[in-house]
Amino acid sequence: MEIKWLEDFLALANTLNFSKAADERHVTQSAFSRRIRQLEAWLGTTLVDRATYPSRLTEAGAKFVPVAQATLKQLYQSRRDLQEEEGADARTIRLTALHTLSFTFFPGWITRVNAKAGPLFSRLRPDSGSMDETLDSLVDGECDFLLTYAHTQVPHLLDPRAFEHRVLGHERIVPVTAADETGAPLHQLEGGAKPFPHLSYEKSSFFGLLLHELIASDLPPSQRVHEGSMSVGLRAMAEAGWGIAWVPESLMTAELEKGSLARAADPRWDVSVEIRLYRARENRRPVVGRVWQSLDAA
Q1: CATH topology of domain 94-163+281-297
Q2: Which of 9, 99, 148, 170 is at 20 to 30 A from 138, Cα to Cα?
Protein backbone atom coordinates (compact mmCIF):
# COMPACT_ATOMS: atom_id res chain seq x y z
CA MET A 1 0.00 0.00 0.00
CA GLU A 2 1.21 3.49 -0.85
CA ILE A 3 -0.40 6.76 0.14
CA LYS A 4 -0.29 8.01 -3.45
CA TRP A 5 -2.59 5.14 -4.49
CA LEU A 6 -5.27 6.43 -2.12
CA GLU A 7 -4.78 9.99 -3.38
CA ASP A 8 -5.03 8.75 -6.97
CA PHE A 9 -8.20 6.83 -6.23
CA LEU A 10 -9.91 9.83 -4.62
CA ALA A 11 -8.95 12.02 -7.59
CA LEU A 12 -10.54 9.45 -9.90
CA ALA A 13 -13.62 9.12 -7.69
CA ASN A 14 -14.06 12.88 -7.94
CA THR A 15 -13.61 13.19 -11.73
CA LEU A 16 -14.65 9.71 -12.96
CA ASN A 17 -12.19 10.34 -15.76
CA PHE A 18 -8.76 8.71 -15.94
CA SER A 19 -7.29 11.46 -18.12
CA LYS A 20 -8.45 14.36 -15.92
CA ALA A 21 -7.47 12.55 -12.72
CA ALA A 22 -4.01 11.83 -14.13
CA ASP A 23 -3.57 15.52 -14.98
CA GLU A 24 -4.58 16.50 -11.44
CA ARG A 25 -2.02 14.06 -10.07
CA HIS A 26 0.69 15.27 -12.49
CA VAL A 27 1.42 11.80 -13.91
CA THR A 28 0.88 10.17 -17.26
CA GLN A 29 -2.40 8.39 -17.80
CA SER A 30 -0.64 5.05 -18.15
CA ALA A 31 1.20 5.52 -14.84
CA PHE A 32 -2.04 6.64 -13.21
CA SER A 33 -3.93 3.61 -14.49
CA ARG A 34 -1.16 1.31 -13.30
CA ARG A 35 -1.35 2.74 -9.76
CA ILE A 36 -5.12 2.29 -9.63
CA ARG A 37 -4.64 -1.35 -10.66
CA GLN A 38 -2.00 -1.76 -7.93
CA LEU A 39 -4.48 -0.45 -5.37
CA GLU A 40 -7.14 -2.85 -6.62
CA ALA A 41 -4.65 -5.72 -6.45
CA TRP A 42 -3.73 -4.81 -2.88
CA LEU A 43 -7.42 -4.67 -1.88
CA GLY A 44 -8.32 -7.75 -3.88
CA THR A 45 -11.32 -6.18 -5.56
CA THR A 46 -12.24 -3.97 -8.52
CA LEU A 47 -12.89 -0.33 -7.63
CA VAL A 48 -13.64 1.15 -11.06
CA ASP A 49 -15.92 -0.12 -13.87
CA ARG A 50 -13.83 0.61 -16.95
CA ALA A 51 -16.44 -0.77 -19.39
CA THR A 52 -18.56 2.38 -19.20
CA TYR A 53 -17.93 5.94 -20.31
CA PRO A 54 -17.53 7.97 -18.29
CA SER A 55 -16.05 5.53 -15.82
CA ARG A 56 -18.01 4.75 -12.70
CA LEU A 57 -17.17 3.27 -9.34
CA THR A 58 -18.14 -0.26 -8.54
CA GLU A 59 -20.10 -0.96 -5.40
CA ALA A 60 -16.81 -1.80 -3.66
CA GLY A 61 -15.29 1.43 -4.98
CA ALA A 62 -18.14 3.53 -3.61
CA LYS A 63 -17.76 1.86 -0.23
CA PHE A 64 -14.01 2.44 -0.27
CA VAL A 65 -14.22 6.24 -0.85
CA PRO A 66 -14.97 7.18 2.80
CA VAL A 67 -12.36 4.65 3.98
CA ALA A 68 -9.68 6.24 1.78
CA GLN A 69 -10.74 9.74 2.88
CA ALA A 70 -10.63 8.85 6.58
CA THR A 71 -7.32 7.00 6.22
CA LEU A 72 -5.60 9.92 4.50
CA LYS A 73 -7.05 12.41 6.97
CA GLN A 74 -5.76 10.41 9.91
CA LEU A 75 -2.32 9.92 8.32
CA TYR A 76 -1.94 13.60 7.49
CA GLN A 77 -3.06 14.65 10.97
CA SER A 78 -0.67 12.16 12.59
CA ARG A 79 2.17 13.52 10.48
CA ARG A 80 1.35 17.10 11.49
CA ASP A 81 1.14 16.12 15.15
CA LEU A 82 4.44 14.25 15.06
CA GLN A 83 6.19 17.10 13.25
CA GLU A 84 4.87 19.59 15.80
CA GLU A 85 5.94 17.37 18.67
CA GLU A 86 9.38 16.88 17.16
CA GLY A 87 9.73 20.61 16.63
CA ALA A 88 8.64 21.32 20.19
CA ASP A 89 10.88 18.61 21.60
CA ALA A 90 13.87 20.10 19.81
CA ARG A 91 13.52 23.25 21.90
CA THR A 92 12.16 21.71 25.12
CA ILE A 93 14.22 21.50 28.29
CA ARG A 94 12.98 19.58 31.31
CA LEU A 95 14.02 20.80 34.73
CA THR A 96 13.57 19.75 38.32
CA ALA A 97 13.92 22.67 40.72
CA LEU A 98 13.76 23.05 44.46
CA HIS A 99 10.41 24.62 45.26
CA THR A 100 11.73 28.02 46.35
CA LEU A 101 14.02 28.37 43.34
CA SER A 102 11.16 27.53 40.99
CA PHE A 103 9.59 30.93 41.59
CA THR A 104 12.34 33.12 43.07
CA PHE A 105 15.31 32.34 40.81
CA PHE A 106 14.02 30.34 37.84
CA PRO A 107 11.82 32.92 36.01
CA GLY A 108 14.58 35.52 35.67
CA TRP A 109 17.25 32.94 34.91
CA ILE A 110 15.31 31.17 32.17
CA THR A 111 14.53 34.56 30.58
CA ARG A 112 18.24 35.32 30.31
CA VAL A 113 19.04 31.84 29.00
CA ASN A 114 16.24 32.01 26.44
CA ALA A 115 17.69 35.25 25.08
CA LYS A 116 21.02 33.48 24.45
CA ALA A 117 20.02 29.91 23.58
CA GLY A 118 16.35 30.17 22.63
CA PRO A 119 13.71 29.93 21.58
CA LEU A 120 13.09 27.46 24.40
CA PHE A 121 10.13 25.64 25.82
CA SER A 122 10.72 24.83 29.48
CA ARG A 123 8.93 22.15 31.45
CA LEU A 124 9.46 22.58 35.19
CA ARG A 125 8.97 19.83 37.75
CA PRO A 126 9.03 21.08 41.36
CA ASP A 127 10.77 18.94 43.94
CA SER A 128 8.79 16.46 45.98
CA GLY A 129 10.23 17.62 49.32
CA SER A 130 12.70 14.74 49.56
CA MET A 131 16.25 15.50 48.45
CA ASP A 132 16.80 11.87 47.47
CA GLU A 133 13.78 11.89 45.14
CA THR A 134 14.87 15.23 43.69
CA LEU A 135 18.30 13.83 42.83
CA ASP A 136 16.72 10.67 41.42
CA SER A 137 14.82 12.73 38.84
CA LEU A 138 18.18 13.67 37.29
CA VAL A 139 19.82 10.27 37.74
CA ASP A 140 16.82 8.48 36.18
CA GLY A 141 16.75 10.84 33.20
CA GLU A 142 13.38 12.38 34.05
CA CYS A 143 14.87 15.85 33.63
CA ASP A 144 17.66 17.49 31.65
CA PHE A 145 18.70 19.84 34.45
CA LEU A 146 18.48 19.98 38.22
CA LEU A 147 18.29 23.46 39.77
CA THR A 148 19.14 23.22 43.43
CA TYR A 149 20.73 24.79 46.46
CA ALA A 150 24.04 23.28 47.50
CA HIS A 151 26.30 23.31 50.56
CA THR A 152 29.33 21.28 51.56
CA GLN A 153 27.45 19.97 54.59
CA VAL A 154 24.81 18.41 52.34
CA PRO A 155 26.80 16.72 49.57
CA HIS A 156 24.87 15.80 46.47
CA LEU A 157 25.84 12.18 45.92
CA LEU A 158 26.23 12.54 42.17
CA ASP A 159 29.25 10.93 40.53
CA PRO A 160 31.28 13.81 38.99
CA ARG A 161 32.29 11.48 36.17
CA ALA A 162 28.66 11.21 35.17
CA PHE A 163 27.28 14.59 36.25
CA GLU A 164 28.59 18.15 36.12
CA HIS A 165 27.38 21.42 37.60
CA ARG A 166 27.66 25.17 37.33
CA VAL A 167 27.29 27.66 40.16
CA LEU A 168 24.66 30.20 39.11
CA GLY A 169 24.49 32.31 42.26
CA HIS A 170 24.30 32.43 46.04
CA GLU A 171 21.56 32.75 48.63
CA ARG A 172 21.38 33.53 52.33
CA ILE A 173 19.08 31.57 54.62
CA VAL A 174 18.00 33.87 57.44
CA PRO A 175 16.21 33.16 60.74
CA VAL A 176 13.08 35.30 60.86
CA THR A 177 9.97 35.80 62.94
CA ALA A 178 6.90 38.00 62.95
CA ALA A 179 7.38 41.59 64.08
CA ASP A 180 5.34 43.21 66.83
CA GLU A 181 3.61 46.56 66.52
CA THR A 182 6.91 48.38 67.12
CA GLY A 183 8.73 46.43 64.43
CA ALA A 184 10.73 44.40 66.95
CA PRO A 185 11.01 40.61 66.47
CA LEU A 186 8.22 38.74 68.20
CA HIS A 187 10.61 35.89 69.00
CA GLN A 188 14.37 36.01 69.31
CA LEU A 189 17.14 33.48 69.13
CA GLU A 190 19.12 34.20 72.27
CA GLY A 191 22.03 32.51 73.96
CA GLY A 192 21.69 30.41 77.05
CA ALA A 193 19.09 27.77 77.74
CA LYS A 194 15.97 29.77 76.91
CA PRO A 195 14.01 27.71 74.37
CA PHE A 196 12.45 29.27 71.28
CA PRO A 197 9.46 28.20 69.17
CA HIS A 198 10.94 26.53 66.11
CA LEU A 199 9.36 26.18 62.68
CA SER A 200 11.43 23.34 61.28
CA TYR A 201 11.94 21.61 57.96
CA GLU A 202 11.33 17.94 57.30
CA LYS A 203 14.68 16.27 57.76
CA SER A 204 14.60 14.68 54.29
CA SER A 205 14.38 18.11 52.60
CA PHE A 206 17.49 20.07 51.60
CA PHE A 207 17.11 22.69 54.33
CA GLY A 208 16.17 20.06 56.87
CA LEU A 209 19.41 18.21 56.15
CA LEU A 210 21.44 21.42 56.01
CA LEU A 211 20.26 22.99 59.24
CA HIS A 212 20.50 19.71 61.11
CA GLU A 213 24.11 19.21 60.02
CA LEU A 214 25.25 22.81 60.26
CA ILE A 215 23.70 24.58 63.22
CA ALA A 216 21.40 22.22 65.11
CA SER A 217 24.05 21.32 67.70
CA ASP A 218 24.79 25.00 68.40
CA LEU A 219 21.19 26.15 68.72
CA PRO A 220 19.61 26.89 72.10
CA PRO A 221 16.89 24.41 73.05
CA SER A 222 13.93 24.70 70.72
CA GLN A 223 10.28 23.89 71.06
CA ARG A 224 9.20 22.57 67.68
CA VAL A 225 5.74 23.92 66.92
CA HIS A 226 5.49 23.12 63.21
CA GLU A 227 7.28 21.12 60.52
CA GLY A 228 7.10 21.50 56.75
CA SER A 229 9.09 20.79 53.60
CA MET A 230 8.59 24.12 51.80
CA SER A 231 10.12 27.45 52.73
CA VAL A 232 7.05 29.35 51.56
CA GLY A 233 4.94 27.50 54.13
CA LEU A 234 7.38 28.16 56.97
CA ARG A 235 7.57 31.82 55.95
CA ALA A 236 3.78 32.08 56.27
CA MET A 237 3.82 30.39 59.67
CA ALA A 238 6.55 32.73 60.87
CA GLU A 239 4.62 35.74 59.60
CA ALA A 240 1.56 34.48 61.50
CA GLY A 241 3.58 34.61 64.71
CA TRP A 242 4.15 30.91 65.33
CA GLY A 243 7.90 31.06 65.83
CA ILE A 244 11.29 31.30 64.14
CA ALA A 245 12.03 29.83 60.72
CA TRP A 246 15.10 29.84 58.48
CA VAL A 247 13.90 31.20 55.14
CA PRO A 248 15.76 32.07 51.90
CA GLU A 249 16.22 35.82 51.80
CA SER A 250 14.95 36.12 48.22
CA LEU A 251 11.64 34.60 49.31
CA MET A 252 10.79 37.33 51.83
CA THR A 253 12.14 40.60 50.45
CA ALA A 254 8.71 42.24 50.50
CA GLU A 255 7.89 40.97 54.00
CA LEU A 256 11.15 42.29 55.45
CA GLU A 257 10.65 45.66 53.74
CA LYS A 258 7.09 46.13 54.98
CA GLY A 259 7.99 44.88 58.47
CA SER A 260 5.72 41.84 58.71
CA LEU A 261 8.86 39.75 59.22
CA ALA A 262 11.98 40.64 61.19
CA ARG A 263 15.34 39.06 61.81
CA ALA A 264 15.22 36.75 64.81
CA ALA A 265 19.01 36.64 65.37
CA ASP A 266 22.24 38.33 64.40
CA PRO A 267 23.93 37.42 61.06
CA ARG A 268 26.13 34.73 62.60
CA TRP A 269 23.08 32.46 62.43
CA ASP A 270 22.65 33.08 58.69
CA VAL A 271 23.57 30.25 56.33
CA SER A 272 25.03 30.88 52.86
CA VAL A 273 24.32 28.39 50.07
CA GLU A 274 25.12 28.10 46.40
CA ILE A 275 22.57 27.91 43.59
CA ARG A 276 23.68 25.17 41.24
CA LEU A 277 22.58 23.72 37.94
CA TYR A 278 23.38 20.02 37.32
CA ARG A 279 23.20 17.96 34.15
CA ALA A 280 24.20 14.45 33.06
CA ARG A 281 27.34 14.46 30.92
CA GLU A 282 25.88 11.82 28.61
CA ASN A 283 22.85 13.97 27.75
CA ARG A 284 23.61 14.82 24.11
CA ARG A 285 20.39 16.65 23.22
CA PRO A 286 21.41 19.73 21.18
CA VAL A 287 19.14 22.07 23.12
CA VAL A 288 20.73 20.93 26.40
CA GLY A 289 24.16 21.65 24.96
CA ARG A 290 23.08 25.12 23.81
CA VAL A 291 21.77 25.99 27.26
CA TRP A 292 24.95 24.71 28.90
CA GLN A 293 27.16 26.71 26.54
CA SER A 294 25.10 29.85 27.14
CA LEU A 295 26.15 29.74 30.80
CA ASP A 296 29.73 30.46 29.71
CA ALA A 297 28.56 33.71 28.16
CA ALA A 298 26.76 34.83 31.30
Answers
A1: D-Maltodextrin-Binding Protein; domain 2 (3.40.190)
A2: 170
Dist CA 265 CA 219 (whole Å): 11
| Whole-angstrom distance, CA of residue 158 vs CA of residue 10 | 59
pLDDT of residue 86: 63
Q: What is the pLDDT of residues 107-140, one digit of tens each?
A: 999 999 999 998 999 999 878 778 888 898 999 8
Under a CB-based contact definition with an 8 Å cutoff, are residues 99 and 202 in contact? no
Question: What is the pTM (predicted TM-score) of this model?
Answer: 0.70
The pLDDT tens digits of the residues spanning 13-57 come to 999 999 999 999 888 999 999 999 999 999 999 999 988 888 899
**Could you name the CATH architecture of 3-88?**
Orthogonal Bundle (1.10)
For the chain, give every domain's residue range.
3-88, 94-163+281-297, 171-273
Q: Does domain 171-273 have CATH number 3.50.50.60?
A: no
Could you report the per-residue pLDDT of 240-282, keeping only the tens digit for each?
Answer: 999 999 999 999 999 999 999 999 999 999 999 999 999 999 9
Same fold, 94-163+281-297 and 171-273: yes
Those residues with Cβ within 8 angstroms of residue 168's Cβ, 6 or more apart along the chain or in another chain: 105, 109, 147, 275, 276, 277, 295
